[in-house]
Amino acid sequence: MSDTSAQNLKYEKLKPREFVDISRWVMSFLYKINKKFTITFFVTATLMSLFSIVNTYLLTRILDVIVDIVGQSGATIQDTYPFLGMMIALSLTESVIGFFRVYSERGLDFVIRPEMEKFLYLKLKELGIQTLEDPDVTNKIHRANRQLHQIVNYFFRLTETMVSAISLFVRGAIVFSSIPMIIPVIVLFSLPKYLSDRKHRSAVWKFGYENTEKRRMGYVNSHYLQAKEFLQEIFISGGHDFLDKRYTKFVDWLTTENMRLRKNWFLSMHGYGFLTDLSVYLAYLMTFAKVFAAKISVGDVFFQISLINSLSGELGRFFNRMNQTFESSIRVKDSYILFQMDPQTKDGDFELPWMEEGPTIDMHNISFSYPRSDTSVIEGLNLSIESGEKVAIVGHNGAGKTTLVKLISRMYLPQKGDILINGKSLSEVKLDSLYKNMGVLFQEYNQYHSLSVRNNVYIGASKKPFDEKRFVESLERADALDFVNDLPNKFEQILSERYTDGTRLSTGQWQKLAIARFFYRDAPLVIFDEPTAAIDAVSEYNIFNKIYSFFEKKTVIIISHRFSTVRNADRIIVLSKGKIIEEGNHEELMKKDGHYAESFRLQAEGYSLAS
After folding, report:
1. What does the domain layout of the chain look like in residue ranges?
2. Helix axes 81-132, 16-33, angle to 10 degrees
3. In 3-state terms, what secondary structure has residue 294?
4. Residue 424, exposed/middle/buried by CB under 10 A (0-12, 13-18, 19+)?
5. Residue 416: beta bridge partners?
6. Which end of the chain is more exposed for a tag (fewer CB within 10 A), N or C?
């Protein structure tokens, strides 16, 4: 690969203790979700593995009866009937138990997979936004989300391994009772194959894990060549061959490396497999010696040879399943770690009551830098916002505006200083009680494509009964009612062409719908972070006039690059490098003829030139 800048992940071997902890967690996790299916699957899988031993034993006894008949010892065909009857009864029992095994397996698959999705999003809610924005946690979530459904498969493999161990023990005990010396021989001759299999599995997994980013970068070229949103430019610019060559080069490299690893793996498996066969042949000799010494019957020979074969096969299956389960546990590890994780910041104890009016916000000497960064985004900032005040925050990119919103929303806690809401420290406030009193419209607002227009707005305050009048008024205030009425299904319109009768909205329309959602929410504390970036100037003017009038007695914080949208705010805060460099209303700041005034004039000139 030519892109040597891709950062690879460091592969770490799984410790036996981690394997035990992960296995215990998976079993308890599935047991909590559905006890009935979990227990039924384990019990029936165990019983099914032992039926073959009983069947072989019954067939052995029938064979002895037949030999006695041939030897004219007085036995008759009727003497086989009880054994045949037992075999029929056993077969019927096996069918019934087999049904419950398959039913419980499919039940686990159908019931637990959607439940695991629920467990995941509930866990993410518990962790909180500050924890989720940590890069390490983000990577774990990404890998855990991809491997989440492996948990059910891991349980199946773990069960098969445990059942195989039980079956192996029973078979080994029976063989040991007649040929004790053969047990250590079979085990010793099988160990090299097991160890080689484990070594090569680890090498294959290590290669895949450490080259995760290379694979992502390689396969994305194929995505570019298939996704319609990329094809238009690719066809016109002639970039198809360039991306095709990159993808082909990547696939050639990946195939070559994978085949090299697997060739060595398969060669060793076949080579060491011959040793296992030798141990079985040695067991045959010991059994035949007993026959010639007249110590066992023909039926016993058949029984012992069958058990020796099944013992050797079961030992191989056990080792193979053990390796597969151990390898699978590495895939499940990220899910395990995620579900054991605690929030980076504890929730507060103080229940913030519902506010009829907007709260006061006081920031005392706060400083903040993002995790793994030594650069302060906010430095020694002091700011007080009165109840019902409309405050606009402006500044260049990177000035700390959005970071300030995240601090007020308690997505992060400042490293220094404190933020108070109605005189109470945010660190002491229960998050749910804070969030029920606030609404935040971020730059990257949500677009619920599978929901109707009605539900896209209603989700802003969905804990209360739906209010049709308030819904329509919210659309109108967001300058969205006209375009919604033009949609084929109006309020019930699904907003994606990927669904039947769905339609696609423009970016500006989506933004208006997001603003309508926050009008509908009608929270005491409202924060808009670049709320009209994709909206035309006329709609922007209309919306902001309604924002200022509608949220009377509410505390409103508006972040915007457009100075025309903030000029009517009660107070304008100018940020630069995490510090307040100017503040006042529009007229006061223009008279100061400072940073704000200069930026306002430059932007106004740009608009006049554009028009």
Report:
1. 16-340, 447-522
2. 100
3. coil
4. middle
5. 367
6. C
What are phi and psi for residue 346, nearest 5 degrees? Answer: -75, 150
> What sign results for the dihedral spanned by CA atoms 176, 180, 184, 185?
negative
Check residue 291 and give its pLDDT: 60
Per-residue model confidence as pLDDT tens digits over 81-103: 777 787 788 778 888 888 888 88
pLDDT (tens digit per residue) in 96-136: 888 888 888 888 888 877 888 888 788 888 777 767 767 67
Looking at the structure, give the CATH architecture of the domain made up of residues 447-522.
Answer: 3-Layer(aba) Sandwich (3.40)
Q: Which of 134-143, 218-227, 490-499 has the highest mean pLDDT?
A: 490-499
* Helix, strand, coil % over all residues of the chain, rounded to 5: 65, 10, 25
Torsion 546-552-556-559 (CA) sign = positive
Tokens of 217: 């970068």
pLDDT band at 342 (very low <50, low <70, confident <90, very high): confident
16-340 sits in which CATH class? mainly alpha
Element (H, E) at 312: helix 298-340
Burial 527-563 (b: 16+ CB within 10 A, else e): bbbbbbeebeeebbebbbebbeebbeebbbbbbbebb
Residues 6+ positions from 557 with CB-CB distance below 8 Å: 385, 391, 392, 393, 405, 408, 525, 526, 527, 528
Query: Over the stretch 168-202, which tens digit does the pLDDT of each residue have?
Result: 788 777 777 776 776 777 777 777 776 777 777 77
Task: Compute φ and ψ for 457, nearest 5 degrees.
Answer: -85, -45
| Edge-to-edge strand ranges of the sheet holding 579-584 | 438-441, 525-529, 555-559, 390-394, 571-576, 579-584
Residues 151 and 283 sit within 8 Å (Cβ to Cβ): no
Distance, in Å, from the CA atom of 333 to the CA atom of 345, rounded to the nearest integer, reads: 23
pLDDT in tens, 472-507: 999 988 888 999 999 999 999 998 888 888 888 888
User: Residue 433 and residue 422: Cα distance in Å, rounded?
Assistant: 13
Phi and psi at residue 259, in whole multiples of 5°?
-65, -35
The residue written with tokens 């159908």 in the block is 110
